[in-house]
Amino acid sequence: MPLETSPESPAPVRRISALLAQYVGRLGAVWLEGQVTQCTRRPGTRTAFLTLRDAAADVSLPVTVPVDVLDALPTPLREGASVVVHAKPTFWPARGTLSMAADELRPVGVGALLARLEELKRVLAAEGLFAPERKRPLPFLPHVVGLVCGRASAAERDVVENARRRWPAVQFRVEEVAVQGPNAVTEVVAALQRLEADRAVDVIVVTRGGGSVEDLLPFSNEAMVRAVAACFTPVVSAIGHEVDAPLLDLVADVRASTPTDAAKRVVPDMEEELARVGQLRDRARGAAVARVAREQAGLDSLRSRPVLADPYRLLDAHAQQVLDLRDRGRRCFSARIDRAGDELGHARARVTALSPAATLERGYAVVQRRADGHVVRHPEEAPPGTVLRLRLADGEAAATAG
């Protein structure tokens, strides 16, 4: 039943503490998993104090465990180790604190870790987080490279130095985080989110050196894998060495075998690009020179042809032909006129010879009766006394028939 309180009748602290202790006590013993962030053993005491942290969230719980339980472990418990603890939650009313009293502690072995990773890998693959079509290409020349790495780590030096050796103008935004231990997941995820929010960052590199399976375990954490899958900026994974294969390598857009390999993948080699530009420039120059030479040869060939070597040669030939035809036409026309003139003279001579006037020219005359103009052909037609008109070659004369 809820406790009835009011400003006039408040519950004392001891009452609330007792109720909390009763409520927590009802939970009973539970199995919980986490990473050891602190392990304190005080001399002369039979109890050790641990702090267990969730691998994917910034949540921790204090745990007390008997020293005998720790001494019974096959290997000493160290910070960062993953453990499974059987403990009962206890609320201490006097101090107002909650702690877990453990009676059994089991380190998570490599085999168990690998089995869990395989199961997580299967689940994430079924969701499509590792699909090749999700992967984005890297930019050819990024202006700013986001780098998530350990503090003052060799991996950071390898990436930065090799990238600047290849392309001196490249800029980095470095996020130094914990890459091992209980805080690694939360810090790396937060760094990814900060770099993803920065619009100047063109590509993100997540890197760290090699290590054991336990050391690289944060980079197979589900929260980190999903954070990388949610990034729109291309992500390069450079975790450990060639043999190391955390789940981050599968979800990243590009997997680099080493930090040095990551530097080679994110920026081009300036010397190689300059050599390629030189080769392309030489090829372009050679192509241009060959094209100009080919066109010049074509022009020379055209100019060497008679029609272009002496453009008026054909015109002169045609002009001469026109002149010859004109002269022939003139000669033909003159000959034709001369022949026509001769024919006309002959025709005129014939006509003249046949003309009555020619007869008159030879002394003949045409006799007509003046009265009616009748030509007299027989003497009977002009009896004596008939007035006649004589037509001569040069005129007329009058006469009377006798």
Structure, explained:
It comes from Motilibacter deserti. Bidirectionally degrades single-stranded DNA into large acid-insoluble oligonucleotides, which are then degraded further into small acid-soluble oligonucleotides. InterPro entries: Exonuc_VII_L, Exonuc_VII_lsu_C, OB-fold_nuc-bd_dom. It holds the Pfam family tRNA_anti_2. Helices cover 43% and strands 22% of the residues. With 402 residues, it is α/β, with parallel strands linked by helices. The protein folds into five domains: 13-108, OB fold (Dihydrolipoamide Acetyltransferase, E2P) (Beta Barrel), CATH 2.40.50; 114-268, Rossmann fold (3-Layer(aba) Sandwich), CATH 3.40.50.261; 271-304; 308-353; 357-400, no CATH class. Helix 5 (184-197) packs parallel to helix 6 (222-229). The longest helix is centred in the C-terminal third of the chain and has 43 residues, at 312-354. The N and C termini lie far apart (195 Å).
